[in-house]
Specification:
Distance between the termini: 94 Å
InterPro entries: HEPN_DZIP3
Organism: Pocillopora meandrina
Largest sheet: 4 strands, antiparallel
Strand content: 5-15%
Strand order of the largest sheet: 2-3-1-4
Shape: rod-shaped
Structural class: alpha+beta
Protein name: DZIP3-like HEPN domain-containing protein
Number of strands: 4
Helix content: 55-70%
Order of helices and strands: HHHHHHHHHEHHHEEHHHEH
Radius of gyration: 40 Å
Length: 371
């Protein structure tokens, strides 16, 4: 015996639900479209989209805009773009991201305060009512009391968004006959609208999860690098050795002039870690770095105080040897005792002495032997 063909039946409650779906899908979408058109004139829409293409590309990368929607935004003939081709989800995305609108105090995803009748609040209400009505999807039915409350709130929202002309269309829809096929059609459309945004939320949730995992990994790497850097700093600090350039046989007055002469060069290094390009102390330090394979770490006042970092034991030993043999003294005089300096000090000659404390030398040497 052949089975009976299933039939679709409707009741007052299921019709109520389908009618709310149609109100949101048809008139709600049109209200959002008219709102977008009021902000960005249809004739100029292609220019607005082109100017904001980077923002839209970012939304596409986040999968907030899907490939089909992207094709609607940027058709083969760019000037042919029209908001008439945008689905409800895309309209909502554009309103929130390309129209300079500020989210209501309660945000875009929650019901705004009753006293907030701004355009932004009504845009948020459209989405809120969509979600609330869809909450009845399992039974696909809404009782009369709930229906009347929903209808009133949604109608008021859409009339504020679209204008008083919406009132007649909404009233007509409320009394229009709906056959079961039409009811099913709008129930499915509302479901698809909800599903589109749910997919976006899932994608965003997954992206946030990935971002959180990456952030955690970055923090772990940073912690490891910081710890490693601290160890390196401790080791390299042990390889530092200080020495002084001491002018010989100067009066207190001339010693002050000697210090002032190198003041700007020392300040340049202290502030910018740069050596003076005009010779003098800059040339002397370059000589030391090149000959002894050192790196200048710091300069100080007084008698010129220099702290260098030795890269290996060989460079330290050579520096110590040349210091004791007087070779460094001669090179310091060559680079530092300029004609200008001698004129300032009113001297025909000036002797310099490089001083490295033996304890500092031995401490640096020991740091290499311990590695």
């Amino acid at each position: 015996m052949a089975s009976a063909t299933p039939t679709t039946s409707s009741s007052k409650e299921t019709t109520n639900y389908a009618r709310l779906c149609r109100l949101l899908v048809d008139i709600g979408t049109q209200a959002l479209r008219d709102t977008l058109d009021a902000i960005h004139a249809p004739g100029n829409l292609h220019s607005v989209l082109a100017a904001n293409k980077r923002t839209l590309q970012s939304l596409r990368a986040k999968k907030i805009i899907n490939p089909i929607q992207w094709g609607k935004l940027f058709p083969a003939i760019l000037t042919a773009v029209s908001s008439r081709d945008f689905d409800t989800t895309l309209l909502m995305v554009l309103l929130r991201n390309l129209c300079g609108l500020t989210a209501p105090p309660t945000g875009w995803d929650k019901l705004p305060a009753v006293t907030d009748l701004s355009r932004e609040a009504d845009i948020a209400r459209v989405k809120y009512f969509r979600n609330t009505v869809y909450g009845h999807a399992e039974k696909a039915s809404v009782d009369d009391i709930s229906f009347n409350n929903f209808w009133r709130d949604i109608r008021d929202t859409l009339v504020r968004l679209g204008g008083v002309t919406y009132q007649d269309a909404i009233d007509k829809l409320r009394n229009e006959t709906m056959d079961p096929d039409i009811e099913d059609h709008y129930v499915k459309l509302l479901s698809e609208w909800k599903k589109d945004e749910s997919n976006v939320k899932e994608e965003l949730g997954e992206m946030r999860k990935i971002q959180e995992e990456l952030l955690h990994a970055q923090k772990e790497i940073l912690h490891t690098l910081t710890s490693s850097r601290e160890v390196v700093d401790q080791v390299t600090a042990q390889h530092d050795v200080p020495f002084k350039v001491v002018p010989m046989n100067l009066s207190a007055e001339k010693l002050e002039k000697f210090k002032r002469h190198f003041r700007e060069d020392i300040l340049m290094f202290m502030d910018n870690n740069e050596l003076s390009p005009t010779g003098g102390i800059g040339e002397f330090l370059k000589y030391i770095e090149n000959i002894y394979k050192l790196r200048t770490e710091a300069l100080g006042y007084g008698c010129i105080e220099i702290r260098v970092q030795c890269h290996n034991l060989e460079s330290l030993e050579r520096l110590w040897k040349d210091c004791n043999h007087g070779d460094l003294n001669r090179m310091a005089e060559r680079y530092l005792v300029t004609t200008e300096l001698k004129k300032e000090l009113d001297l025909k000659a000036l002797r310099l002495s490089i001083k490295i404390n033996e304890e500092d030398y031995l401490a640096c040497k020991e740091s290499f032997l311990e590695v």
